[in-house]
Design a protein that fits this description.
Helix content: 40-55%
Pfam family, one: Acyl-CoA_dh_2
Strand order of the largest sheet: 5-6-2-1-3-4-7
Distance between the termini: 31 Å
Oligomer: single chain
Largest sheet: 7 strands, mixed
GO molecular function, one term: monooxygenase activity
Radius of gyration: 21 Å
Domain Acyl-CoA dehydrogenase C-terminal: 235-366
Structural class: alpha+beta
InterPro entries: Acyl-CoA_dehydrogenase, Acyl-CoA_DH_C, Acyl-CoA_Oxase/DH_mid-dom_sf, AcylCo_DH-like_C, AcylCoA_DH/ox_N, AcylCoA_DH/ox_N_sf, AcylCoA_DH/oxidase_NM_dom_sf, HsaA
Protein name: Flavin-dependent monooxygenase
Amino acid sequence: MSQAVLDGVRDLLPGFRERADECERLRVVPESSIKELDETGFFKLLQPRRFDGHEADPITFYTAVRDIASACGSTGWVSSVVGVHPWQVALFAEEAQQAVWGEDTSTRLSSSYAPTGKATVTEGGYILSGKWSFSSGSDHCSWVLLGGLVFNAEGQVVDFKTFMVPRSDYTINDVWHMVGLAGTGSNDIVVEDVFVPEAFTLSMGETGQCKGPGQEQNTNDLYKLPFHSIFTGTITTPIIGMAMGAYAEHVEMQQARSRAAYLGEKASKDPFAMVRIARASSEIDAAWALLVNNIREEQAYVAKGEPIPLRTRLKVRRDQVIGSERAIEAIDALFEASGGRALTTGTYLQRAWRDAHAGRVHAANDPERALQMFGAHEFGHKVDPGMY
């Protein structure tokens, strides 16, 4: 079934590429693209089988995202961050899972995890308020996952949680006017004094231990992998896909290009151009191979019933941020060598250049923090496993 989803997604790629300009103009992924993805079963790849999902291998999910992004960066980005949320919903208490999927298993959620909101403890749950930015794909979703610090009656922080909130309890502010990932509709979410029941929350401390109350119902090994491995992969994968799309277009353009400044020399016969594409392809392949191999390594520990070593989890983050860098450096090298026609509105290459650099500023792609933590662990310093 998962292969059928991949095949269905690949059939959609020409349409996504044709609609890429429309996606940017609308500042949101076209509804037709979301509908097509929904019909393939893409958004259910990581969803539990008991809610009509596939419980697919995360690499299958990442492969689909990579391919989508190779046709349209914004569509790939939204597909990735919206498509991964069923994995986290499966960790919530059964009551929350039923609220999301009990009546409609095609329900989608957006998110904004930075703890910019405030929750105060009250009887049976929390009162949540705040504004969250960058909720990609929110226009296509009827629930949202929000990060927030929890305060007790004395004003002390007692937890950091994810809060699940229905569409009726939040407002979307249309603020997304960007030069990159312009079609992701990553707008603001505003919540004002909304009651969130305890069952609709998930402690990030517990998540950091690869635990969640939903594991009682959803026993597949898929739901025992680290949050920060699965979710950061959803940020790097579309960037790798953008690099693949940029590479394909660059090669196609250079095969037809004559370089006027070099007396009409065919670009495809330039030995320096050959070296450049060889290096770029290697960087893209390396970024993808490390992502796949690291997830496979974590899966092997889970399959044996063993805890995933902290060093392995840190390595996943190390290679994830480096993977984003590698993909973007490949795009930069190709863009620089593509000539002035690559700047033309409507070309994939100039859009990939903008989209990838926009994706680079996501918090999950902060290289210094991830690399410093890996290095600290190697030197024997204490590292909080909850963050990795």
